[in-house]
Amino acid sequence: MSSSQQHNSGPDSDGPEVPEPSHAERAKTLVYLQQTGGLSTLSRKQPGWPFGSVMPYGLDEQEQPAFLISTMAMHTQNLLGDPRASLLVTPPESRTDPLGAARVTLMGSVTPVPKEESAPVRERYLARHPNASYWVDFNDFGFFRMTIADIYFVGGFGSMGWVAPADYAAAAVDPLAEEASELIRHINTDQAETLLLLARVFGKVEAQQVTMTALDRLGFHLRIKTPGRMQGGRVAFTSPVRTASEVRAGLADMAARADAGAELVHSL
Question: What is the pTM (predicted TM-score) of this model?
């Protein structure tokens, strides 16, 4: 098993394997979309114990996390004593579904950014955190960045695995990343009947209510309520999509195939 191998089939998944982005792509997209994580450093006061901090982050030119931190902060003192740290990044939906939502832990060495390399880090950080311009030039603040050593991604129940830093560096952010949340909201509101049709025809389940929970260039995840239980599933687009209009066209094509009784790649 390679470090980036995925485990996507839960106990209810007995259909064909459904194409979906690699763990590296999903981790890269999650880190790109969020702006704050939980930083764990090694305590100087209690040697060997992890010390957790809320930590806004930016991304450097290699898309590694960068931090603007004060020398007075406990986590900064910890890092100056031992640069090993981890950054946990979670999406907003983890507040209501903490175990079902995706999350990623980046591990690496967090060290000061040399002054001659700080200009692009500063520019990219302030683009994500404009309020930091009020304290970025304070004498006790400086930029640090994480050189990633390893990554662990959890995509929800039954989907998890290690991601090699090289795979993460080579991965691309999903083209729907910026639009996915709004698209999901509109689809759940305006195309509820289409989702029901897809679950009933392709999943062959007595679906009472269907909600789209995740969306990417290759397909989408569904949460399906049946008379006996709640279950999950994934459906693949007939071809990859990159824009909102292509998503809508893809759903229309699926609905037409469902009406015609055609096969579609799915796992429910």
Answer: 0.85
